[in-house]
Amino acid sequence: MNGQQDGAQRDRFPKAVSTQAEEFSRRLETMGQSRLAAAAQAAVQGLHALITELRPSSDEFRQAIDFLTEVGHYADARRQEWVLLADVMGMSSLIEDQNSPRPHGATPNTVAGPFYRSDVPEMPLGGNISRDRKGELLEVTGRVVALAGEGLGGAVVEVWQANAEGLYENQEPDRQPEFNLRGRFRTDSQGHFRFTTVKPKGYSLPSDGPVGQLMSALGLGLERPAHLHFRVSADGFETLTTHIFDRSDPAIDRDAIFGVKPELMAEFRLLPPNGGKRTYALDLNLVLCPQRRDEQPLGGDDRWHVSAATTT
Ligand SMILES: [Fe+2]
Q: Is residue 111 classed exposed, middle or buried when 0-12, 13-18 and 19+ CB atoms within 10 A define those classes?
Protein backbone atom coordinates (compact mmCIF):
# COMPACT_ATOMS: atom_id res chain seq x y z
CA MET A 1 0.00 0.00 0.00
CA ASN A 2 1.49 3.37 -0.94
CA GLY A 3 1.47 6.54 1.16
CA GLN A 4 -1.50 8.05 -0.66
CA GLN A 5 -3.62 4.99 0.01
CA ASP A 6 -2.48 4.97 3.64
CA GLY A 7 -3.66 8.56 3.98
CA ALA A 8 -7.05 7.74 2.46
CA GLN A 9 -7.46 4.82 4.85
CA ARG A 10 -6.58 6.98 7.82
CA ASP A 11 -9.23 9.52 6.77
CA ARG A 12 -11.80 6.78 6.46
CA PHE A 13 -10.88 5.12 9.75
CA PRO A 14 -10.15 7.95 12.18
CA LYS A 15 -8.00 7.47 15.25
CA ALA A 16 -9.36 4.83 17.60
CA VAL A 17 -10.05 5.54 21.25
CA SER A 18 -8.84 2.26 22.78
CA THR A 19 -6.35 -0.43 21.87
CA GLN A 20 -9.24 -2.77 21.10
CA ALA A 21 -10.91 -0.24 18.80
CA GLU A 22 -7.55 0.39 17.17
CA GLU A 23 -7.12 -3.32 16.51
CA PHE A 24 -10.70 -3.52 15.19
CA SER A 25 -9.85 -0.74 12.71
CA ARG A 26 -6.64 -2.50 11.68
CA ARG A 27 -8.50 -5.72 10.97
CA LEU A 28 -11.14 -3.83 8.98
CA GLU A 29 -8.49 -2.13 6.87
CA THR A 30 -7.31 -5.51 5.63
CA MET A 31 -10.84 -6.25 4.37
CA GLY A 32 -11.12 -3.26 2.04
CA GLN A 33 -13.47 -0.32 2.20
CA SER A 34 -17.23 -0.46 2.26
CA ARG A 35 -20.15 1.49 3.67
CA LEU A 36 -20.74 -1.32 6.15
CA ALA A 37 -17.10 -1.27 7.30
CA ALA A 38 -17.24 2.50 7.77
CA ALA A 39 -20.42 2.17 9.83
CA ALA A 40 -18.95 -0.64 11.93
CA GLN A 41 -15.82 1.40 12.55
CA ALA A 42 -17.82 4.47 13.58
CA ALA A 43 -20.05 2.39 15.84
CA VAL A 44 -17.11 0.70 17.55
CA GLN A 45 -15.31 3.98 17.98
CA GLY A 46 -18.39 5.69 19.43
CA LEU A 47 -19.14 2.83 21.81
CA HIS A 48 -15.53 2.61 22.97
CA ALA A 49 -15.53 6.35 23.58
CA LEU A 50 -18.68 5.92 25.66
CA ILE A 51 -17.15 3.10 27.68
CA THR A 52 -13.92 5.04 28.18
CA GLU A 53 -15.89 8.03 29.39
CA LEU A 54 -18.40 6.26 31.64
CA ARG A 55 -16.26 3.34 32.87
CA PRO A 56 -19.30 1.09 33.56
CA SER A 57 -18.99 -1.73 36.08
CA SER A 58 -19.62 -5.31 34.92
CA ASP A 59 -23.06 -5.16 36.57
CA GLU A 60 -23.93 -1.95 34.75
CA PHE A 61 -22.80 -3.44 31.47
CA ARG A 62 -25.03 -6.46 32.15
CA GLN A 63 -27.96 -4.14 32.89
CA ALA A 64 -27.43 -2.42 29.54
CA ILE A 65 -27.38 -5.80 27.77
CA ASP A 66 -30.53 -6.85 29.64
CA PHE A 67 -32.29 -3.62 28.61
CA LEU A 68 -31.46 -4.13 24.94
CA THR A 69 -32.57 -7.76 25.19
CA GLU A 70 -35.89 -6.63 26.66
CA VAL A 71 -36.37 -4.09 23.87
CA GLY A 72 -35.93 -6.93 21.40
CA HIS A 73 -38.48 -9.07 23.24
CA TYR A 74 -41.06 -6.27 23.02
CA ALA A 75 -40.64 -5.80 19.29
CA ASP A 76 -43.02 -7.71 17.04
CA ALA A 77 -45.15 -7.13 13.96
CA ARG A 78 -47.52 -4.78 15.84
CA ARG A 79 -45.18 -3.14 18.29
CA GLN A 80 -41.73 -1.86 17.27
CA GLU A 81 -39.94 -1.06 20.50
CA TRP A 82 -36.67 -0.42 18.65
CA VAL A 83 -38.31 2.31 16.60
CA LEU A 84 -39.78 3.73 19.79
CA LEU A 85 -36.30 3.80 21.33
CA ALA A 86 -34.89 5.57 18.25
CA ASP A 87 -37.81 8.03 18.37
CA VAL A 88 -37.44 9.06 22.01
CA MET A 89 -33.68 9.46 21.62
CA GLY A 90 -34.24 11.85 18.72
CA MET A 91 -32.51 9.57 16.22
CA SER A 92 -35.52 9.09 13.94
CA SER A 93 -36.01 12.84 13.74
CA LEU A 94 -32.31 13.45 13.05
CA ILE A 95 -32.29 10.87 10.27
CA GLU A 96 -35.38 12.51 8.75
CA ASP A 97 -33.69 15.92 8.91
CA GLN A 98 -30.58 14.59 7.22
CA ASN A 99 -32.41 12.71 4.49
CA SER A 100 -35.05 15.32 3.74
CA PRO A 101 -33.36 18.71 3.98
CA ARG A 102 -35.56 21.62 3.02
CA PRO A 103 -34.40 25.05 1.87
CA HIS A 104 -35.25 28.13 3.90
CA GLY A 105 -38.90 28.99 3.43
CA ALA A 106 -40.06 25.46 2.64
CA THR A 107 -42.18 23.59 5.18
CA PRO A 108 -39.92 21.22 7.16
CA ASN A 109 -40.30 17.49 6.74
CA THR A 110 -40.93 15.23 9.73
CA VAL A 111 -41.35 11.52 10.37
CA ALA A 112 -44.65 10.02 9.20
CA GLY A 113 -45.19 8.00 12.37
CA PRO A 114 -46.84 4.59 12.57
CA PHE A 115 -50.47 5.50 11.79
CA TYR A 116 -50.37 6.58 8.12
CA ARG A 117 -52.59 4.75 5.62
CA SER A 118 -52.17 5.16 1.88
CA ASP A 119 -55.56 3.73 0.89
CA VAL A 120 -57.84 6.60 1.92
CA PRO A 121 -60.35 7.53 -0.82
CA GLU A 122 -60.28 11.04 -2.27
CA MET A 123 -62.95 13.43 -1.03
CA PRO A 124 -64.33 16.67 -2.50
CA LEU A 125 -62.90 19.90 -1.11
CA GLY A 126 -64.81 20.96 1.99
CA GLY A 127 -65.56 17.36 3.05
CA ASN A 128 -65.77 16.30 6.68
CA ILE A 129 -63.16 13.70 7.65
CA SER A 130 -64.76 13.09 11.05
CA ARG A 131 -66.89 10.10 10.19
CA ASP A 132 -68.27 9.74 13.73
CA ARG A 133 -68.71 13.51 14.34
CA LYS A 134 -67.30 13.20 17.88
CA GLY A 135 -65.40 16.22 19.16
CA GLU A 136 -65.12 19.97 18.77
CA LEU A 137 -65.29 21.17 15.19
CA LEU A 138 -62.14 22.31 13.43
CA GLU A 139 -62.35 24.05 10.06
CA VAL A 140 -59.09 23.73 8.15
CA THR A 141 -58.25 25.95 5.20
CA GLY A 142 -54.90 25.89 3.51
CA ARG A 143 -52.89 26.42 0.42
CA VAL A 144 -50.12 24.40 -1.18
CA VAL A 145 -47.53 26.73 -2.67
CA ALA A 146 -44.07 26.63 -4.22
CA LEU A 147 -41.12 28.46 -2.68
CA ALA A 148 -41.81 31.58 -4.75
CA GLY A 149 -45.39 31.64 -3.46
CA GLU A 150 -47.38 30.49 -6.47
CA GLY A 151 -50.25 28.13 -5.70
CA LEU A 152 -49.92 24.53 -6.86
CA GLY A 153 -53.15 23.28 -8.43
CA GLY A 154 -53.84 19.55 -8.49
CA ALA A 155 -51.59 18.76 -5.51
CA VAL A 156 -52.70 15.81 -3.41
CA VAL A 157 -53.13 16.61 0.29
CA GLU A 158 -53.43 13.65 2.65
CA VAL A 159 -54.30 14.27 6.27
CA TRP A 160 -54.57 11.96 9.27
CA GLN A 161 -54.97 12.67 12.97
CA ALA A 162 -55.94 11.34 16.38
CA ASN A 163 -59.48 11.92 17.65
CA ALA A 164 -60.58 14.05 20.60
CA GLU A 165 -59.34 11.29 22.92
CA GLY A 166 -55.89 11.08 21.36
CA LEU A 167 -56.46 7.82 19.48
CA TYR A 168 -56.10 6.98 15.78
CA GLU A 169 -58.68 5.02 13.84
CA ASN A 170 -56.35 2.06 13.34
CA GLN A 171 -55.61 1.90 17.06
CA GLU A 172 -59.22 1.09 17.86
CA PRO A 173 -60.85 -0.33 14.73
CA ASP A 174 -63.80 -1.60 16.78
CA ARG A 175 -64.69 1.86 18.12
CA GLN A 176 -63.95 4.21 15.22
CA PRO A 177 -65.34 3.99 11.66
CA GLU A 178 -63.03 2.97 8.85
CA PHE A 179 -60.97 5.98 7.65
CA ASN A 180 -62.15 8.13 10.55
CA LEU A 181 -60.15 11.37 10.66
CA ARG A 182 -58.32 10.58 7.45
CA GLY A 183 -58.74 12.45 4.22
CA ARG A 184 -57.31 12.87 0.76
CA PHE A 185 -58.00 16.05 -1.19
CA ARG A 186 -56.86 17.64 -4.42
CA THR A 187 -56.10 21.36 -4.41
CA ASP A 188 -58.00 23.72 -6.70
CA SER A 189 -56.29 25.58 -9.54
CA GLN A 190 -54.87 28.14 -7.07
CA GLY A 191 -53.55 25.51 -4.64
CA HIS A 192 -56.32 25.94 -2.06
CA PHE A 193 -57.81 23.13 0.00
CA ARG A 194 -60.27 22.98 2.89
CA PHE A 195 -61.95 20.38 5.03
CA THR A 196 -63.82 19.96 8.29
CA THR A 197 -62.59 17.77 11.12
CA VAL A 198 -62.49 17.71 14.92
CA LYS A 199 -59.84 19.17 17.17
CA PRO A 200 -57.26 16.46 17.89
CA LYS A 201 -55.97 15.71 21.36
CA GLY A 202 -52.33 15.04 22.18
CA TYR A 203 -51.35 11.56 23.26
CA SER A 204 -48.64 9.56 24.94
CA LEU A 205 -46.36 6.97 23.37
CA PRO A 206 -46.59 3.45 24.83
CA SER A 207 -45.22 3.40 28.38
CA ASP A 208 -45.66 -0.27 29.27
CA GLY A 209 -42.40 -1.55 27.74
CA PRO A 210 -38.70 -1.13 28.50
CA VAL A 211 -38.48 2.20 26.67
CA GLY A 212 -41.31 3.57 28.80
CA GLN A 213 -39.56 2.29 31.93
CA LEU A 214 -36.31 3.92 30.85
CA MET A 215 -38.02 7.26 30.21
CA SER A 216 -39.77 7.04 33.56
CA ALA A 217 -36.48 6.31 35.33
CA LEU A 218 -34.98 9.35 33.59
CA GLY A 219 -37.93 11.51 34.61
CA LEU A 220 -38.79 12.20 30.97
CA GLY A 221 -42.27 12.13 29.49
CA LEU A 222 -43.71 10.38 26.45
CA GLU A 223 -46.21 13.07 25.48
CA ARG A 224 -46.89 14.26 21.98
CA PRO A 225 -48.63 17.64 21.63
CA ALA A 226 -51.87 17.70 19.61
CA HIS A 227 -51.25 17.70 15.87
CA LEU A 228 -52.47 16.92 12.38
CA HIS A 229 -50.30 14.88 10.02
CA PHE A 230 -50.02 15.92 6.38
CA ARG A 231 -48.51 14.40 3.28
CA VAL A 232 -48.52 16.60 0.19
CA SER A 233 -47.42 15.53 -3.26
CA ALA A 234 -47.26 17.46 -6.51
CA ASP A 235 -45.51 16.73 -9.80
CA GLY A 236 -41.97 18.11 -9.91
CA PHE A 237 -41.83 18.77 -6.15
CA GLU A 238 -40.45 16.91 -3.17
CA THR A 239 -43.23 15.06 -1.38
CA LEU A 240 -43.74 16.73 1.98
CA THR A 241 -44.56 14.67 5.07
CA THR A 242 -45.10 16.85 8.10
CA HIS A 243 -47.07 17.70 11.24
CA ILE A 244 -48.96 20.84 12.18
CA PHE A 245 -49.00 21.26 15.96
CA ASP A 246 -51.39 23.13 18.23
CA ARG A 247 -49.10 25.78 19.68
CA SER A 248 -51.29 26.12 22.80
CA ASP A 249 -50.82 22.46 23.80
CA PRO A 250 -49.06 22.28 27.21
CA ALA A 251 -46.65 19.66 25.81
CA ILE A 252 -45.57 21.79 22.84
CA ASP A 253 -42.02 22.14 24.26
CA ARG A 254 -41.52 18.48 25.10
CA ASP A 255 -42.64 16.42 22.12
CA ALA A 256 -41.29 12.94 22.90
CA ILE A 257 -40.09 12.38 19.33
CA PHE A 258 -38.65 15.87 18.63
CA GLY A 259 -41.02 16.66 15.75
CA VAL A 260 -41.95 20.22 16.77
CA LYS A 261 -40.31 23.06 14.85
CA PRO A 262 -41.27 26.73 14.94
CA GLU A 263 -42.60 26.62 11.37
CA LEU A 264 -44.90 23.73 12.29
CA MET A 265 -46.66 25.38 15.22
CA ALA A 266 -50.03 26.93 14.41
CA GLU A 267 -52.91 28.54 16.20
CA PHE A 268 -56.15 26.61 16.42
CA ARG A 269 -58.35 29.72 16.69
CA LEU A 270 -61.58 29.52 18.67
CA LEU A 271 -64.29 31.10 16.55
CA PRO A 272 -67.00 33.37 18.03
CA PRO A 273 -69.96 31.40 19.45
CA ASN A 274 -72.55 30.62 16.83
CA GLY A 275 -75.16 28.67 18.75
CA GLY A 276 -73.77 25.20 18.14
CA LYS A 277 -70.60 23.34 19.15
CA ARG A 278 -67.38 25.16 19.90
CA THR A 279 -65.62 25.58 16.59
CA TYR A 280 -61.97 26.21 15.87
CA ALA A 281 -60.26 27.33 12.70
CA LEU A 282 -56.81 26.54 11.36
CA ASP A 283 -55.24 28.31 8.37
CA LEU A 284 -51.99 27.11 6.93
CA ASN A 285 -49.61 27.31 4.02
CA LEU A 286 -47.68 24.21 3.03
CA VAL A 287 -44.61 25.19 1.04
CA LEU A 288 -43.05 22.63 -1.29
CA CYS A 289 -39.58 22.72 -2.82
CA PRO A 290 -38.53 21.42 -6.24
CA GLN A 291 -37.61 17.78 -6.54
CA ARG A 292 -33.92 17.06 -6.04
CA ARG A 293 -31.93 15.04 -8.47
CA ASP A 294 -31.20 11.60 -7.02
CA GLU A 295 -27.96 11.70 -5.12
CA GLN A 296 -25.31 9.02 -5.28
CA PRO A 297 -25.14 6.91 -2.12
CA LEU A 298 -22.14 7.55 0.09
CA GLY A 299 -19.20 5.20 -0.35
CA GLY A 300 -18.65 2.81 -3.17
CA ASP A 301 -19.35 -0.78 -2.28
CA ASP A 302 -22.71 -0.82 -0.52
CA ARG A 303 -22.92 -3.76 1.84
CA TRP A 304 -25.78 -2.52 4.02
CA HIS A 305 -28.11 -5.23 2.87
CA VAL A 306 -26.48 -8.14 4.64
CA SER A 307 -28.53 -11.30 4.55
CA ALA A 308 -29.35 -13.16 7.76
CA ALA A 309 -27.08 -16.00 6.64
CA THR A 310 -24.02 -13.75 6.44
CA THR A 311 -24.59 -12.18 9.83
CA THR A 312 -24.60 -15.39 11.84
FE1 LIG B 1 -49.53 11.53 15.44
A: buried
